[in-house]
Inverse folding.
């Protein structure tokens, strides 16, 4: 075989090997999804276990343990048209709550409270358990971590997003709230008159 033909054969062989390597390369697994079947409609959430493993993993523990079956959306904070957030979860029920988790701020995960983002509610950093917020509109200014702010500036821990059912979330946000009702003395003016119930929360396959 001449030098030219040998060189061409080597190039073809190398190219074929590279193509085989590309074909054999593992495909990144899809992020887990959870369907909330509610009395207002279906909501599908994608949990970002890659960027927020602690917080997303915590949410999945509540789902897998069926701890979110029967909970309600007990808070709706509507600042403007299609702008605010809704909140659901264990709402202080000790029989449903798991131990608090480590806080994963948005400055660490790179996730942000944009339209449809889901995050875990908390008091101090490291106190979050099983209460979750879903943003309507861009809530980065209110809920993202911001080292430039005074005091506790670590925000909420975003860990995923709504991939189906934002119309249901907006319906919950737009529903009438009581001017006087509270949740254990808090959230006055933010408690829905008629609560939306989560019938089931189950993992579903990505489409």
């Amino acid at each position: 075989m001449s030098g030219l033909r040998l060189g061409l054969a080597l190039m073809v062989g190398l190219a074929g090997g590279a193509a085989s390597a590309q074909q054999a390369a593992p495909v990144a697994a899809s992020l887990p999804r959870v369907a909330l079947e509610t009395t207002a409609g279906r909501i599908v959430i994608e949990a970002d276990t890659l960027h927020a493993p602690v917080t997303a993993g915590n949410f999945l523990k509540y789902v897998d343990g069926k701890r979110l079956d029967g909970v309600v959306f007990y808070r709706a904070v509507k600042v403007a048209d299609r702008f605010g957030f809704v909140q659901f979860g264990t709402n202080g029920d000790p029989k449903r709550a798991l131990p608090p988790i480590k806080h994963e701020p948005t400055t660490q995960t790179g996730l942000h409270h944009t339209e449809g983002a889901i995050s875990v509610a908390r008091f101090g950093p490291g106190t979050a358990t099983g209460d979750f917020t879903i943003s309507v509109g861009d809530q980065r200014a209110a809920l993202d971590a911001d080292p430039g702010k005074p005091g506790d500036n670590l925000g909420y821990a975003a860990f995923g997003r709504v991939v189906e059912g934002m119309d249901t979330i907006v319906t919950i946000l737009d529903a009438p709230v009581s001017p006087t009702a509270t949740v254990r003395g808090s959230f006055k003016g933010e408690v829905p008159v008629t609560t939306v119930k989560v019938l089931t929360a189950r993992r579903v396959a990505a489409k």
User: Anything to note?
Assistant: Strands lie at 33-38, 41-47, 72-80, 83-89, 117-120, 131-136, 157-164, 177-178, 191-192, 196-204. Confidence is low (pLDDT under 50) at residues 1-28. The longest strand covers residues 72-80. The CA atoms of residues 142 and 155 lie 8 Å apart.
